[in-house]
Description:
By secondary structure, this protein is mainly α. It has helices at about 5-15, 20-35, 40-50, 60-70. The longest helix is centred in the first third of the chain and has 15 residues, at about 5-15.
Amino acid sequence: MSPDKLVMMANQIGRFFVAQGPDQAAQGTAEHIRQFWDPRMRAAILEHLAAGGEGLDPHVRRAVEMLRDG
């Protein structure tokens, strides 16, 4: 799956959680990705983050950083 598609999907997930506030949005987004994304998709979004993370909404970037940091 292309990085652009993954970013779009991650940002859509993030928009769902945004009403809960920035910290909860990041946590909820990270948990959703952890539970429901295929390991290859998670690896690809982490690679995208390592390459700069272009296009990720701020709280979605924090969510992907949470995934990276364990």
